[in-house]
Batch of 2 targets.
Target 1
Amino acid sequence: MPHPLVALTASSKAASRPGKYSRVRVNEAYVRALQSVGLVPLVIPPSLSPDEARAVVARVSGVVLSGGEDVDPARYGAARHPATQKPKAARDATELALVEAARDAGRPLLGICRGLQLLNVALGGTLVQDLGMLRPSEVGHSQESSGTQRVHGLTILSGTRLHAAVRALAIDVNSIHHQAVDRLASSLHATAYAPDGVVEAVETAGDWWTLAVQWHPEELMEDAQPWDRAIFEAFAQACGMAADAHI
Ligand code: MN
């Protein structure tokens, strides 16, 4: 099927003051990255009921969980750390429902940054709420420079879906996150680590195609290194097969 449709999650932004407008928004880099590999992204508002999430998943060939706000720690049974952002309950609920629907329907799922963290929480894992305060290290995970700069290395595990996609065992990535996986969900495998041991990629074993990364490959699509484009290409290939099989 040409032009597979994929759901792309978005965040909401409150009106800055009375008389201004609240908005649904997503960084355009995700849209461009998905279109560049032949996918048609449909931007999904962060306000779906579980039934609506299921209806969306039934009509698309894949799901992309984009980056954004911290997941509400209540979702993994923890009290909110002072460094954790105010919860966005509707976005959390929307994306948790999308994960469940994608798993039930066997749709490929790509998670980016918050998307990795949300996937881990959806499947029963927990998060470190602030790396700088709770797991200080020499690795700067909250880069000050532009997201198009690579700031730390990764070690990728051989034989993983991530390895098959990027065809390398050591790559450099950007890093725009202050949270990370703490306890990994039992159905996920860690597939890449930063030098300080922070989990930088996860995937499920078995038939359900998932791949989630802690960095932002969508900001590195123009980079000389092919690693980040390869992640989107692998997702597009999985969506193409899902489109043939299901739709
Ligand atoms: Mn990092």
Target 2
Amino acid sequence: MSILVVGSVAYDSVKTPYGSRREALGGSATYFSVAASYFAPVSIVAVVGSDFRSEDQAMLKSHDIDTRGLARVRGKTFRWVGEYGEDINNARTLDTQLNVFADFSPALEPGHSSAPFLFLANIDPELQYQVLQQMQDRPKLVAGDTMNFWIQGKASALAKVVGSVDVLLVNEAEVRQLAGENNLAKAARRILHQGPRMVVVKRGEYGAVGFTPENVFAAPAYPLENVIDPTGAGDTFAGGFMGYLAASGDLTMEGFRRAMIVGSVMASFTVESFGLDRLRSLSTDAIQERYREFWRLTYFDGTGERELPTRHFALQESTSGRDG
Ligand code: AMP
């Protein structure tokens, strides 16, 4: 089944402890689409400027990404400048230039408004909502992402988006900021009360945790020795997650858990090189092999019902430190 995504297509200038890149192809919709394209057909809704390079357009085409909804207008493509310090999990934004996104108003192409899977990648929540409203039928699954830039700048538009998605995927700092709550589990619960059926918290090198009203599931990140550039890891995770769900059609809790592992698999490739260098040229063998490695990494027991060989003491429960 096909996926429609709205989000940023950008030129990123990034510095990490391992080097730097200037004006490399990036953007939330770009990472998402390339990752998801390994599993399902993707159509992209975004805008680029007259400076958009033909080789970047060709790269999207080589992944069979439908770019009919990628408008090209006069002006400059979105620019993002970011830097990572020793704490490789958190990007510091040095500059955001919306450029052609400042006046963009998406109009869906024929066929796009009936896509069964919709991903509202990180971009102005007003644009995310405009796309959602143009959908003919409610898609089977709507998921979304955002970041501090929009949480601070467009809180009320974002509240409408959060209230309309089935799954919200956000990083750890953002879930705390969005909920106004420091404890991760409480913050996720608060967001679950606002509408989504599932909140997936992306925690960089610590993996991801999925919260539903009844379940919590943790997926590790692959323990890589060389993390070169984490830019796009979150969008890539979302691409693997949605790509798997669209390809399998499995929207059970089991399916969502597996989708989180597939998200982690795909993100592990993105961080191994600058920009899209690794993600854009994966073989299906490499994806399958890393999925198996994840399975081995997380497997510890065929059944959760095994009794542990614990020792018993006749102890009284402590009452100290309790409230009341
Ligand atoms: P992440 O997966 O969180 O590392 O996303 C990184 C990508 O987000 C980069 O390629 C940027 O171009 C893009 N980006 C950064 N800031 C924004 C923003 N305010 N709106 C949309 N996309 C952004």
